[in-house]
Structure prediction request, 449 residues.
Amino acid sequence: MTTFAQHAEQLSTTTLLRFATAGSVDDGKSTLVGRLLHDSKSVLTDQLEAVEHASRNRGQEAPDLALLTDGLRAEREQGITIDVAYRYFATPRRRFILADTPGHVQYTRNMVTGASTAELAVVLVDARNGVVEQTRRHAAVAALLRVPHVVLAVNKMDLVDYAEPVFAAIAEEFTAYAASLGVPEITAIPISALAGDNVVEPSAHMDWYGGPTVLEHLETVPVSHDLTACHARFPVQYVIRPQTAEHPDYRGYAGQIAAGAFRVGEAVTVLPSGRTSTIAGIDALGESVDIAWAPQSVTIRLADDIDVSRGDLIAPADDAPAVTQDVEATVCHVADQPLAVGQRVLLKHTTRTVKAIVKDIPSRLTLDDLSQHPAPGRLVANDIGRVVVRTAEPLALDTYADSRRTGSFLLIDPSDGTTLTAGMAGEAFAAAAAGAGEETAADDTEWDF
Prediction:
């Protein structure tokens, strides 16, 4: 019998995979997640009993595994996923953080939340319907968020008699579309989430398929959490000045290292001011250390007494990002209210929030053929498009392709704090990016930067 200590040691030696599920309404996302949890023995007895009880109350003989993730009353009443449901489970080979995202077009914005930190996205397709607009939308979001691995799960194969030609046609269409967006790796798996085919156990009905099951692929797909190889970035969250008798001159800059590693004695630049110094010390968990790396939370002390505030970025002197007030980005609009040219917003980047104006919306992406609708004038909920934003203060912004942490930002309504838009700085897709038009000089007498 495995002891708690042995189990903890086992978990510490396994890798962690963050992944998200997406797909159209009724494609079976929640059922797939429920089947994955159930068949991998990751469901507690009382949870399963609660699901069985709820299923019987709804007149169902077999337990509805979708209820393991659809916990909101509105979700169970409508049989759809509304909010992102996070689940944590583990196998002997790997630990998982799963984000079950909604499929309805109204909640596409929730997928941006679920997939923003994912290393893998599972996109479900109903074998009877094939690739639909929402499938393309989810593939585009995964590509924009630079999710490195995408799994196409062709679900409900039992309803098409497990026909190989049906699966092959869907896989070919989706792979061509996702590849055109620059998705680096696409794996297609035929499944039946309801019957359990190729989810955890291989299917006895599809002997023509020789690839991995969904769980096998999740356990073996290569993932890297080595943020130390990235450009070193440290957004300052808080300035520590005790000014006590014990620490009369202590000045430290606290925060979480977004990427890379920092060492004592290293020459650094503070942005956006551009002032330079060297790291005099690094404090982590109450102790001084010589080196710290992402995603550790630390306090950095500099050799020179320079002006550093919350929102500033500390970076190596020889590898600092460019500072700009003109941000060109691809965005996914997530608010019900539209985003329009000339609109005044707040831009939140890491720990820094500045005033900004939407100077131009050069294009909106048409998902059917990936063409650009020029100069739409505004973006509405769930639209994906290009924007040009002018900020009141300089920002040290990486491109999203270089850093998902320091290349992303939010546009916020200054009147009520509502999140309007999620942005990815730089080019849109890994492949040839959507072209953006010339920046327009939208005039604004109040916020003219």
Remarks:
- Residues 1-13, 72-82, 432-449 have pLDDT under 50 and may be disordered.
